[in-house]
Amino acid sequence: MPIRYDGAVARFEGACGVEEALPLSDWLLATPDVRLDLGACTELHTAVLQVLMAARRPVDVAPEDAFLKRWLPSPLWGEGGP
Questions:
Q1: CA-to-CA dists, residue 75 to 1, 2, 17, 31, 50, angstroms
Q2: 8 and 35 in contact (C-beta within 8 Å)?
Q3: Beta-strand runs (E) in 1-82
Q4: What is the pLDDT of residues 34-73, one digit of tens each?
Q5: CA distances in angstroms from 10 to 36, 37, listed in the order given
Q6: What is the mean pLDDT of the chain?
Q7: How far is it, in rounded angstroms, from Cα 21 to Cα 28?
């Protein structure tokens, strides 16, 4: 599964496709004080990106993939940036 939910932590792994957007949205709405770990994410569908941007929750762990890290908009990053 591209996104694993472990309590208040969502870990993005590999390619996260459009089918992940709705479950992610539901989880974000139902979970307070979430932590987002994109460290192992290699691809992110724009629908998933839109959910992340709408939720206004900072990403705690930036993707290791240099292209993806550079491509993600700055409003997703917490105070320290990527």
A1: 26, 23, 21, 20, 12
A2: yes
A3: 3-6, 9-16, 35-44, 59-61
A4: 999 999 999 999 999 999 999 988 889 989 998 888 888 7
A5: 5, 6
A6: 90
A7: 10
How far apart, in whole angstroms, are the C-alpha atoms of residue 2 and residue 17?
Answer: 8
Rg, Å, the chain Cα set: 11
pTM of the predicted structure, to 2 decimals: 0.87
Given a cut of 60, is residue 81 above it in pLDDT?
no
Rounded distance between C-alpha atoms, residue 80 and residue 44, angstroms: 22
In the chain the first and final C-alpha atoms are separated, in Å, by 24
Question: What tokens appear for 53 in the block?
Answer: 């941007």
